[in-house]
Structure formats: structure tokens, C-alpha cells
Amino acid sequence: xxxxxxxxxxxxxxxAEVAEVRGGTVxxxxxxxxVLVAPDKFKGSLTALEVAxxxxxxxxxxxxxTAVTALPVADGGxxxxxxxxxxxxxxxxxxVTGPLGEPVDAAYALRGADGTAxxxxxxxxxxxxxxxxxxAPLTATTRGTGELLLAALDAGARTIVLGxxxxxxxxxxxxxxxxxxxxxxxxRGRTLAPGGAAxxxxxxxxxxxxxxxxxxxxxxxxxxxxxxxxxxxxxxAVYGPQKxxxxxxxxxxxxxxxxxxxxxxxxxLAGAPGAGAAGGLGYGALAGLGAAFRPxxxxxxxxxxxxxxxxxxxxxVTGEGSLDEQTLHGKAPVGVARASSGTPVVAVCGRxxxxxxxxxGAGIERAYALTDLExxxxxxxxxxxxxxxxxxxxxxxxxLG
Length: 401
Fold this sequence. Notes:
The chain contains 14 helices and 14 strands. By secondary structure, the protein is of the alpha/beta class. It has a domain at 80-297: Glycerate kinase, domain 2 (Alpha-Beta Complex), CATH 3.90.1510.10. The strands form 3 sheets. It has a 6-stranded mixed sheet, with helices on both faces. Strands 4-5-6-7-10-11 form a 6-stranded mixed sheet, sandwiched between helices. Strands 8-9 form a two-stranded antiparallel ribbon. Strand 5 and strand 6 (116-120) form a beta hairpin. GO terms for molecular function: glycerate kinase activity.
């Protein structure tokens, strides 16, 4: 694989939910207003599809006659497969190895027309698969992600978008590589145990038996972080603590990942953008599988057919649970705004922590926060649907009246 050009992902006119309400009985001789609703999920509250549906309901109620196109989006993390399914991909299921080594049921999305698959590593190796409090920072494995990639290949995928985020692992993608045929051994020729800590004993990495179909497959690593594999901004230091790693564990993992990189490719790609994504799985995909890294939202907008949906839109509505500093670094709302080609963009969110200047710099004209309607955070999350509909009515009054 190892191509030097970054692959583009084919797209077609999507089968996204399109709802149109015609108002009045007199024929309208002017073109009706068209709104494209393209939000990410509100984490812990609503999926991206649910957000889009509530927004559409409020817009149609306040501005009858407006054509509303719903296009849920994702940036490569949790919800990426759901966004692809909402856009007409087929759901496929596979039984794979979970992060603790137990079997789990995982899903991926496949578009048979062009052989494009969307694989979300969190489906197989995500934090959400861990029992409450059962972190395993030193031993959690990405083997299931490799098995999910194999399932996509078995289904005929020729292009695979690998969304990375929400991982329970810090094994540099070693588990993924072994599931795909790599052999990682210690100085005595023994196969390494699962997890990132075991990488400290890596002596030899044999990639000669990697799944042959990978060489004929375009693999796109889609993520929203550009961290390197190691160091103060690396996978262990930045993301290890949220996976249960103590300061001592972080030091062990960082050293083990550095050693792993020296053995695998001489450390050549350890500093590449995206290498530190998903506990270093990004590095494993780049160095071991020849994947090409692209910002997750950019890839997903292409896959979902955002450009086609945007063609006649007068207004774009995007959003996510919290609009904050992280939003400005590769998250979905900014990606949507940048792809909107001059069409006005407004955003909805649960919580707003960005000022007007930051929003404007990101291409967002205005943001509407649900906490302005319900300051209590718990109530706001519980009632997010109705609050979104009220917010959509306000947007309709401000922009469609």
C-alpha cells in the first residue's frame, strides 16, 4: 500500500433523510428556501441522526415550505458508522475480540456500489466496551479492530475508511497488525502478550504474512487528532490517563511505544500527523499497513456526499454537544463550515465556550446553545430533543423569516 498520494474516497448522491413540507395552497413561483442540517452527535445525549431529526422538526414547524435535508456527520470517532448508515450504507456485523480479549459484537458500514467500507475502531476496541471501572491501560488490545478490517475485506471492500477515536487501548495498533497476519516476537521468538506494555520486549516484527488483499485496498486513516506517537504530546501522555493509566503507566507505555517504533520502521513515522491517534493505532496503520492519514471530518463529508447535498442550500446548520477550543482542531462543526463554500453556517450546541471572534474565524456566523434555554446541565441533556426543536425555531425566525 504505501502510496505517497493521499487517496480520495468516492462519493455519490446520498440516500439521506430528506423532508419537505409545502405550505399554503397558492403555487409559489420563487425557489423555496433550502436548509442543510449536518450535525455531529451530542455525546451522552443524542446521536447525530436524532439531532438532525429534532432540528428538522423545529425548522419545518417554524418555516413551513422550507426544504430540509438531514445529513448526520462524524469526524472519525464514535458515531462514524452510524453516520454512514444514515447516509444509505448497509450495516454489517462481525464477532471480534474486544479490548480485554473477550468476544464482542461490532458493526461496520459498507456501500456495495463502489466497495467503500467505514470501519470504526471504537466498535471493536473502544472505551465504551469496558465494564464500569475496568480499565486495562497496559494490556488492552486492538486485535478486534484488525478482525473488523478483515471482515470488511471479506465483504468485498476496496476502499476502507478507518475511523479512530474513543479507544480503550495504547498498544500502537500491535493487536490490529497481528490480527492481519503480522508476527511480533521477543528475543526468544515468542509471540508478545497483548497490550502496550508488552511492546517493551519486542525484538522482531515480521510483516511478510500480512493479509495480501491490503495491497490492493485503499486504506484511509480518518481521525481528529494530529498527535505524534510518543513524547509529551504522544498517545500515552495525552490520552493514557483517560484510559486509566497512572503516571507510572504512562511512562511505561511511552517507552514501550518508542521501542516498538524503532523496531517497526526505525521510528520514521512516529512523528507523523495521526500517529498518536487511538493509543497509537494510527501509527500501526501508517507504518504497518501503509494507510494515508486525513482529517476525519474531511473524509466523512466526502464519503457522505456533503458537496452534493450543499449544492442548493441557502443555510447550513451544524453542531455538537460542546463548542469549545477542541472544536477548532478538526472537529465536525468546523469541518462542515470550511466545506460550505460561502453558504451561511450556524451551529447548535449544548454548551458554548467560544466567543464570536473564534466562531467567525471558524466560518460559523452564530452559535445557539441549549444552556441558554435550560441552564441546568442535567436537565439540558435529558431534554435535548425538545430544546433543539425550540432552537431550530429560533434559527428559522432569524434566518428564514
